[in-house]
Design brief:
By secondary structure, this protein is an alpha/beta fold. It has helices at residues 18-27, 50-57, 77-83, 98-107, 154-166, 181-190, 199-202, 207-218, and strands at 5-8, 33-38, 64-69, 85-91, 111-116, 134-138, 172-176, 194-197. The chain has an eight-stranded parallel β-sheet with strand order 1-8-7-6-5-4-3-2. The N and C termini lie close together (9 Å).
Length: 219
């Protein structure tokens, strides 16, 4: 069984102390640092751009997992890669030429991810799955942290994981939204191998204990 990675989401951290928060979750055992990039158009919220990601990178030894919730992400891929993103995930709903954008991400030196909103079927990825390093299944509607897990997304995770296994791919299945120990167990059983957690980590007094609880639940 592939080890499940834990990716604390900075959207839920104390933003006035973001450098300290990055170092704290790294010390607590985080495998990735999840960075939610929002433009106020694709989702109804605005967060940060490449200069802030570059500032985060100065504090981070752990790979930055940048989730671009923006329209026309191909315009900004190179900037985020230069800022220090190790993985760049774009939404299938936000880019017209998905395969071209995936190649652009890889040419920029990052691994390539594709995200699916809760209503989006996995069929859109069937013919480009070989080019994807990570599929991000949104289990809440993107834009804000602290939302409830959408149960109907579990079969989507199972279907994607089945494709990955059948084709003997190394593609990871990442899940973001409403992840806590109880849901971590269920999505991992469905085939998820990366768990994004915001309030389940940053909303707890002991980050190490919170990450351990998620990891144990996913075993």
């Amino acid at each position: 069984m592939t080890d499940v990675l834990i990716a604390p989401s900075l959207l839920s951290c104390d933003l006035a102390r973001i450098g300290e928060e990055i170092r704290a979750v790294e010390a607590a055992g985080a495998d990735l640092i999840h960075v939610d990039v929002m433009d106020g158009r694709f989702v109804p919220n605005i967060t940060w751009g490449p200069p802030v990601v570059a500032a985060m990178k100065k504090h981070a030894k752990t790979p930055l997992d940048c989730h671009l919730m923006i329209v026309e992400p191909e315009k900004y891929v190179d900037d985020f890669a230069k800022a220090g993103a190790a993985n760049i995930t774009v939404h299938v709903e936000a880019t017209v030429h998905l395969h071209r954008t995936l190649q652009q991400i890889k040419a920029a030196g990052a691994t390539a991810g594709v995200a699916l909103n809760p209503h989006t079927p996995p069929d859109h990825l069937e013919y480009v799955l070989d080019s994807i390093d990570m599929v991000l299944v949104m289990t809440v509607n993107p834009g804000f942290g602290g939302q409830s897990f959408i149960e109907a997304c579990l079969p989507k995770i199972e279907r994607l994981a089945g494709w990955v296994q059948k084709r003997s791919l190394k593609t990871r299945i990442e899940v973001d939204g409403g992840i806590a120990p109880d849901t971590a167990k269920r999505v991992a059983s469905a085939g998820a191998t990366v768990l994004v957690a915001g309030t389940a980590v940053f909303g707890r007094p002991d980050y190490r204990q919170a990450i351990r609880a998620l990891r144990d639940a996913a075993r």
